[in-house]
UniProtKB/TrEMBL annotation:
Transmembrane segments: none annotated. InterPro entries: PPR/CCM1_RNA-binding, PPR_rpt, TPR-like_helical_dom_sf. The keyword Transferase does not apply. The keyword Cell inner membrane does not apply. It holds the Pfam family PPR_2. This is Pentatricopeptide repeat-containing protein. It comes from the Eukaryota. SUPFAM superfamilies: HCP-like (SSF81901). It comes from Nicotiana attenuata. Keywords: Repeat.
Length: 610
């Protein structure tokens, strides 16, 4: 009997009942059926024959793995041959059907009519893609082992016979399967094409790479990528896909190593376009690695590439986010020199960079550029410009931008109000700041934060409104707003200006009870207010309880000299020197002026000593 496998360079098993004459043969002709006299019909055309002996009865459904098939559609089929495992190496790695065909009848007629008379079975492939036998014809009949080994390796590699040999059609199949997220099927066609000497087009290869990477098959994708490089089928998109995948799997350093290897080759460097550079910058931007992004920027410039809008947007946004405002300004300036129009994200970021660098005029120009090009600045950009103008004391411009912000539909938040209050304080318009604060406090839509309270406490400090400052401090504590050391310092400073030492001491003791550690500004302010309030003992007690500090001793000594406490000042001076602290020039001058008159020699000695 004859077992025929169709739709490939035809494979057949011929069993004539005489086990010694049982033979396996194959032919490169496709879609042929073999009668009993199979060898007579193919005299001179059969490319190879291999003998095997003996007979075995096997259930194909139980032994389907010997063919490499995933499954059989018929439950059981009986074969009579020996050395079944020999067929494993030449079987197909695709699903198939078994049909009973009568000798001499048309295909499928015996199945339909149920009148099969001979033990002939036709193995019909369920799809037209089969194991390619393009190299089989080159094998001689005296090379059965090499043929079986090569065929077995091809099966294990997922290589199939391709009835269709049109490269464009096969490339479209790869493209379609890749888009349908079927990477294994697309990969099988790709391998079969390359095995057959066919060349997939670039679009299909890139789509296959993308599908493999989406499914986490990086190792296979890298093999395809290397094959594409060898075939010179790579583009910038190819490199971008691989570099992103390598960065996700191995980190930025792995991507940088691969990129460095690529640009080290002159041939590959010429194929790396600006898209690849943008990909590398985006990889480092995602990791907030501004240094590596700057390095790619330098390589891009050195290789004669010109950045695009995307390039500079990535650079500017990355540098601003990482606090590298000067680099962001340099990138933006280069973008303008190259005649590129920045996008909204780029301008929002550069406004922040200009504002932090104190270049309020540049920030204002960018804001005006956005308005001229019918771009709507966001709330954050407006706040940045207001804050920058406020720090420069440009009160009028700050409120103009505030009005513009409202006209754009942005509601002012706590940051906006704090920037306006700071603008008034910088312009020494403290009373107006207090009036604005009262307006803000009456707005139910605004939640006052610690920054607004500290800003208005500064206004109270400058005006010496100790009672208002204490009132605001109690309000902060009642509202459960975290009161910082800076807040207490402002209140004590207001008491100093108003010459209210006892109130300042009460605030200080309250501060200590709240477990806030006083800093040098707290102690200096408290020391001055105690001296001017003639609270000498309290001043000395503060010196004893605080850590030794030259500035604090200088303030105490100078204040006591000015208030006539010469002896106490000298005592503190000697204590200061014993602690190893150095007096400043003003303290030395006051000590020299209050020394007793001695001889010129003693006086000179004292001058050298002090």
């Amino acid at each position: 009997m004859v077992h025929v496998i169709k739709n490939l360079p035809t494979l057949a098993v011929y069993l004539d009942g005489n086990e010694r004459n049982n033979r396996f043969c194959y032919s490169r002709r496709a879609k042929l059926r073999y009668p009993r006299e199979i060898f007579a019909l193919y005299t001179g055309k059969v490319k190879g024959c291999f003998s095997f002996n003996g007979s075995n009865l096997v259930y194909v459904s139980e032994k389907c793995t010997m063919f490499g098939f995933a499954q059989l559609k018929l439950p059981a089929v009986l074969f009579s041959f020996k050395e079944v495992n020999n067929l494993c190496s030449i079987a197909l790695n695709v699903p198939y059907e078994l049909e009973s065909v009568s000798d001499g009848e048309s295909e499928g007629s015996d199945v339909q009519n149920g009148n099969s008379t001979n033990d002939v079975y036709n193995l019909e492939l369920s799809r037209k893609d089969c194991l390619t036998n393009s190299n089989i014809g080159n094998l001689a009949t005296n090379q059965p082992s090499s043929f079986l080994e090569e065929t077995k390796n091809s099966v294990e590699d997922g290589i199939m016979y391709l009835e269709e040999t049109n490269e464009e059609v096969l490339s479209k199949r790869i493209l379609k399967l890749s888009r349908q997220n079927k990477p294994k099927s697309a990969l099988a066609i790709y391998k079969s094409m390359t095995f057959s000497g066919l060349k997939p087009d670039l679009h299909a290869c890139n789509s296959l790479l993308s599908s493999l990477l989406r499914n986490g098959m990086l190792d296979i994708a890298l093999k395809i990528f290397n094959s594409m490089k060898a075939s010179e089928l790579t583009t910038g998109h190819t490199y971008s896909l691989i570099l992103k995948a390598v960065a996700d799997a191995g980190g930025c350093d792995a991507a940088m190593n691969m990129f460095s290897e690529l640009i080290s080759s002159k041939n590959l460097r010429e194929k790396i376009d600006i898209v690849v550079y943008n990909t590398m910058i985006s990889i480092f931007a995602k990791a907030n690695s501004w240094y590596q992004a700057q390095k790619i920027w330098n390589i891009l410039t050195d290789n004669g590439q010109v950045g695009t809008i995307v390039t500079y947007r990535l650079l500017v946004c990355t540098f601003v986010r990482c606090g590298q405002n000067e680099l962001a300004i340099d990138a933006y300036s280069e973008m303008i020199r190259n005649g590129l129009s920045p996008e909204g994200d780029t301008m929002h970021a550069i406004i922040g960079a200009y504002s932090r660098e104190g270049k309020y005029d540049c920030a204002l120009n960018v804001l005006q550029y956005m308005l001229d090009n019918e771009l709507k600045p966001n709330e954050r950009a407006c706040n940045a410009v207001i804050n920058s103008l406020g720090k420069a004391g440009k009160v009028k411009l700050s409120f103009e931008v505030y009005e513009l912000m409202k006209s754009l539909g942005h509601a002012p938040d706590a940051y906006t109000w704090n920037s306006l209050l700071n603008a008034l304080n910088r312009a020494n318009r403290y009373s107006e700041a207090l009036q604005l604060f009262e307006r803000i406090r009456n707005l139910q839509s605004v939640i006052l934060n610690v920054h607004i309270y500290n800003t208005i406490l500064t206004s109270c400090h400058r005006l010496g409104l100790w009672d208002k400052a204490v009132q605001i401090l109690w309000q902060m504590e009642a509202s459960e707003i975290p009161v910082s050391t800076a807040s207490y310092n402002q209140v004590i400073g207001a008491c100093e200006v108003a010459r209210r030492p006892k109130v300042a001491l009460q605030v200080y003791y309250r501060m200590v009870r709240q477990k806030h550690s006083p800093d040098i500004f707290t102690l200096l302010s408290l020391m001055r207010v105690c001296i001017w309030g003639s609270l000498w003992n309290e001043a000395v007690e503060i010196l004893k309880l605080s850590e030794p500090n030259g500035s604090l001793y200088n303030a105490a000594i100078q204040g006591m000299f000015l208030t006539g406490k010469i002896d106490l000042a000298k005592k503190l001076y000697m204590e200061m020197r014993e602690r190893g602290l150095q007096p400043d020039g003003k303290t030395r001058a006051m000590m020299l002026q209050n020394l007793p008159k001695h001889s010129m020699r003693n006086r000179r000695r004292n001058v050298q000593k002090y």
